[in-house]
Write a structure and sequence with these properties.
357 residues, alpha+beta, eight-stranded mixed beta barrel, 7 helices, 16% helix, 36% strand
Length: 357
């Protein structure tokens, strides 16, 4: 993260909630309630918010977070109830955040945020029949707060939220060479539409075989054992007991710097699976997010990992895939009937406060 400048005179007052989903932490607030201290009451933009994001997200000099989640009660898409802005800690505006959208949903419920688009407002005190339709830069996302889920914990202010992440897509540029490849990714998609070998050029990692998919954003999924088998990656990376400590940042930096012909920079997920994990339909993953570095979890990344694991035969499509990241477990289902990806996981409120910045 770049150094931040400290100004003596604050410019904004923000009431916020610090939240986390599986260890991915966020500062969440409503766009129309950010107060400019100079009296200007014009509509706040995501671009303006992005200019002070590095200050808010700084873990020593600000609140500290992986991303800002900004709530808009009047989205452009009139079919949506709310709009969600996602801004990485480096100030870049992101497409979507799978863990962030669960926290977004909980914030709406907790604060009973009304939508300017809805003629009939949500029943915030109802059962599990609530559906939130949310506009993101990645498209419409539907969420379902599971208010009666057995894993909810009122004492720790945790609820489970299910998210329809939409259909997975091919994560590549559609050009003259590959225009015959459909954008939507299915189990019948040709292997060349999602499998690539890219040059890395490190002493311990010459190349990598990667699965590129797009679920709420581009994901580059690396299966450790497969790349060791191919001779691309040093065998020391296959030690299951040391997976949490291996160096993944250097490889990820190379992938991030070299877009490799794709239409956007990808999050990079490294995946390992033990024989017992396979029996449980589970994989273990670490993730390096673009603009944020390694994080404890990534919801869109977990979806990409699950889709890639099914495509490569590591996991069974007929039951939920358990994706375990350092921050916790997410349950992912790739529905074989409608090709939709569903993600279920926790959303937790940490604290509420106000900041002048």
């Amino acid at each position: 993260m770049e150094p931040i400048s400290i100004e003596n005179k604050p410019l904004y007052k923000i009431n916020f909630t610090k939240m986390q989903g599986a260890g991915n932490d966020f500062v969440v607030f409503e766009k129309n309630k950010v107060e400019r201290l100079n009296g200007d009451q014009s509509i706040m933009t995501y671009e303006e918010i992005s200019k002070f994001t590095t200050k808010l997200s700084h873990r020593k000099l600000g609140i500290g977070c992986d991303q800002l989640i900004v709530i808009d009660d009047n989205p452009n898409d009139k079919n949506a109830a709310y709009g969600m802005g996602v801004i990485n800690c480096d100030g870049n505006i992101e497409m979507m955040c799978g863990n962030g959208v669960r926290c977004f949903t909980k914030y709406i419920i907790d604060n009973k945020v009304l939508s300017k688009n809805l003629k009939q407002q949500l029943n915030f005190d109802s059962d599990d029949n609530i559906e939130q339709i949310i506009e993101t830069k990645s498209g419409i996302v539907k969420t379902y707060p599971l208010l009666n889920h057995h894993l909810n914990n009122k004492d720790k202010d945790v609820i489970m939220v299910k998210v329809n992440m939409g259909t997975p897509k091919v994560s590549r540029l559609i050009n003259e060479i590959d225009c015959h490849i459909p954008k939507v990714l299915t189990r019948q998609s040709p292997i060349q539409s999602y499998m690539y070998t890219i040059d890395i050029g490190l002493p311990y990692c010459s190349k990598l075989e990667c699965v590129y998919v797009s679920v709420g954003g581009n994901q580059c999924v690396v299966f450790i054992d497969r790349n060791i088998e191919l001779g691309y990656l040093d065998s020391s990376y296959g030690d299951y007991s040391k997976f949490s400590t291996i160096n993944i940042q250097e490889i990820s930096d190379i992938i991030h710097k070299n877009v490799n012909g794709f239409d956007d920079i990808a999050n990079v997920e490294f995946v390992i699976q033990s024989p017992q994990d396979k029996l449980e339909n589970k994989v273990i993953s670490r993730v390096v997010e673009r603009g944020s570095g390694e994080t404890l979890a990534c919801g869109t990344g977990a979806c990409g990992v699950a889709v890639a694991s099914i495509l490569k035969g590591y996991c069974n499509e007929n039951t939920e895939v358990i994706v375990e990241m350092p921050g916790g477990k997410l349950l992912i289902q790739w529905n074989p009937n409608n090709n939709q990806v569903f993600k279920t996981g926790p959303a937790t409120t940490v604290f509420k406060s106000q900041i002048l910045i």
